[in-house]
Amino acid sequence: MTPPRVLTVAGSDSGGGAGIQADLKTMLALGVHGMSVLTAVTAQNSLGVQGVWELPAEAVRAQYRSVVDDIGVQAVKTGMLGSAELVETVAELIADTDAPAVVDPVGVSKHGDALLADSALDAVRTRLLPAATVATPNLDEVRQLTGVQVESEDDLRRAADAVLAYGPRWVLVKGGHLAGDAVDLLTDGTAAGEHWLRAPRHDNRHTHGTGCTLASAIASGLARGRTVPTAVAAAKEYVTGAIASGFALGAGIGPVDHGWRFRA
């Protein structure tokens, strides 16, 4: 039988820890068929990003149409888009696709390297987020997009409301940068749709690719027919295990372990 199909639209991480590479590994681990639209090539390793080369919008659009028009998709996940032109192109494509879309509004890399131009922020707010079934910003991305500074769990609901104001159906605000347990807030803006997800914090410093992995895991769950809360809860469990099993590569921050379940 043909497995569910998930399309990732993101940049390449030559070190294999994040981006397209992390997405496809996650999809394989979770039993779906992963496909890809490459938006940019990066020279990247455990120490950071040494170079970025963006693909033209025409190439991104051609990749997307090639996959969707022939193979079809049950879910789409977006990651690094880089420029306003690419954000607008991808937003138009996913809005015209009859499948749930998980938008990871990637702003900076794990090492602090900028992966989204300041000139693209307005396009993310007005074009990309309204097309999202689930948006998955971390606290830095919330601040970048909305100006809301999250300093405690009490601020997470205010941050979620600020992101929801731009139009996604659900938002998952990732509170991993806060002290204490790793707590995330998933909400659609209603009392019934509010879900708090907690997991013990691991001391492992090798967490490169966490955001890409989580968004891809959510998209994989949606492609399998799960509801948003169920897909997010399963994705949280998967990424928590991947963080706990993260391993050293090179001289810097290593990746989470996408194959941890195979070695458990």
TrEMBL record:
Pathway: Cofactor biosynthesis; thiamine diphosphate biosynthesis; 4-amino-2-methyl-5-diphosphomethylpyrimidine from 5-amino-1-(5-phospho-D-ribosyl)imidazole: step 3/3. Keywords: ATP-binding, Kinase, Nucleotide-binding, Thiamine biosynthesis, Transferase. GO terms for biological process: thiamine biosynthetic process; thiamine diphosphate biosynthetic process. InterPro entries: HMP/HMP-P_kinase_dom (IPR004399), PM/HMP-P_kinase-1 (IPR013749), Ribokinase-like (IPR029056). CDD domains: HMPP_kinase. Residues 13-257 form the Pyridoxamine kinase/Phosphomethylpyrimidine kinase domain. This is Hydroxymethylpyrimidine/phosphomethylpyrimidine kinase. It comes from Streptomyces murinus.
